[in-house]
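Fold these two proteins, one after the other.
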Amino acid sequence: MSNPFFLLFISILSGLLLGKIQFKNFKLGASGTLFAGLFFGWLFPLFINSQKELINIQNTLNTFFNFSLILFVSSIGLIASRDIKKILKTHGFKFIILGFLITFSGFISTLLFTYFTNLNNLNLLGVFSGSMTSSPGLASALESIKEGSADIIYGYTVGYIPGVLAVIFSIYFIPIIFKININKEKESYKFESIDNSKDYNFNFISFSIVIILGILIGNLNLNLKFASLKLGNTGGILLSSLFLGSLGKIGNLSFEFNKNILKVFQNLGLVIFLSSIGLRSGYKVISNFNRESLYLMVISFVCAIFSILVGYIIGKYIFKLDWIILAGAITGGMTSTPGLGAALDSTKSELVTAGYGATYPFALLGMVIFNKLFSILTNL
């Protein structure tokens, strides 16, 4: 229990076995690793006597978390880059609208709870970013508030898991509730998607350039009039992989990679990412559970579900988007990497990554704007 590698892989093994259990048309799939991680994350600190050793384990888990994000986001960006031009050309401004609309829905629903509850507004500000599973949103919230950062972080930590669960459950249950035939939709896109059958080599030099450029972009501070925006590793690597992947080649450097290898990276990154979330959060979420944290968790879940439903209704019935593309757009609007993993798992189509990549940047900008508005409207 003191070995972080053992904790990681026992969580992955248990979670994947849990994910195979099927109830009618529903199963957790790769998302089972999140729940296994939560359990072992609660369990392992009980066996650790030294605070220093506990901190060392947590630091290693943080490294797993960050490395898995790099693997997952770069691979989905490079896969999505093959279709994103065609998706954007076909659907135009719909993804921009969805990105802002979904984050606005989360903002307005969280803001309403400041008027109808006696909860700490700083906690609710953190819950907003937690319900949207947005680390850049948390950074923006912390930047706009000089005092009370601990309360914001607490709200984010408590709200994050319900936000993740809301996206995962929605992605699996919406097709069941609304009787969406995913296989039929996949057939309609079968001949529209760019041919990915070419067996490209995997160039680690090009792949490293994608990562390095993404980290550099992610660490740039973009000073806007209302706030400064920092994309972080996730946003930066997503943009670099989409950009370089869509270019294909620069001189002798090829950014066209073997899709099967990218899928291996994607799946490996996803299960490590979900497991490490659970391992990092399990003890705090389960052991510190009380009435106030319960309220915040319920609020986070409600706000996330509301945002998802708004995105689904507008996307499906007004923009007429098929579920495969819309599932990616919703998870992009929620800035939810675990949600994208659930969408990939439930649809078995990489086209969802194009919807995710097209919506994510605008949702990220929306999180910065609405965090600032939240602090202004609540006089924080």
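Now the second one:
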Amino acid sequence: MRAKALLLILGIGLGAPPALAWNGAGHRISASIAWNRLSAPARQQVSRLLQAHPDLARWQRQQKHYGSLEQSRALFIEASTWADDIRHDSRYHDNDAETLSDTPDMMARHRDWHYENLPLTPGRGGPEERAPQRGQLTIRIKQLSAQLADRRLGDPERAYALVWLIHLVGDIHQPLHVVSRYDEEGNPDAGGNDQSVIDPANNRRPETSLHTYWDDLPGPSRLRGNQLLDAAQLMDSDIQHTPQKTVAAWRQESLQLARTRVYPGIDSNLVPVLDERYSRQAKAVADRRLVEAGRRLAGLLNRIWGK
């Protein structure tokens, strides 16, 4: 408790702003892996829809990092972070807690699409069982998939669904985007955002949140270009079989990983120091989840447009 108090005095810990999902590098890595596994019809449709998206120019500005790489692939990779990028774009607005709608507001940030707050330890009749479950991650992936496959919709609506889908498939594979640990009063830790940890390997900022630590496992958020493409190719070649499964199963995998790999050893009353063993295992989990997200995104798009 003394360590936690010290961190709070220093202005870090629970007062830190909420983290996003995988950082930019993570989403781009998964998108790069997905592109390599898209069928020719899927690539053609994806490329056409990206041209119809109103924020196309945002991604075109980043093409300089990719040299002679095929334009459509570079745009697909850069579009993967759009759902996080609009959080800081004044053209978009925050919205109140939503109900499921077939016509979502296309200028809203939809912050509750990125996560779900499932209880870390269910089935005990504790306060976490009575707490309201927030977040729409799973159901929005299903809805956006149906929207993308609906040929009655115009290209702008389907392009909107595509770009959200690229991002949210990455989100659901980050274990801390489907779970929260609840205290005795039923208050969630916001997917580890309110749990401080110390990472000795981070010389610049060792004190961080558990959520941010996991978000940053893919590498520097600014990672682009050949370094990113090489990292994605290496990770994809290292990981062997990854079953496609259902969206609900993807969520269950992340929930189980949170229970067995993320939270064990993390005492909510302390600011734990993450040792080398924890970091090594976390990195292995993150790499596999990024590869699974990329392969499964490709599988989803290939099913929509034919293999």
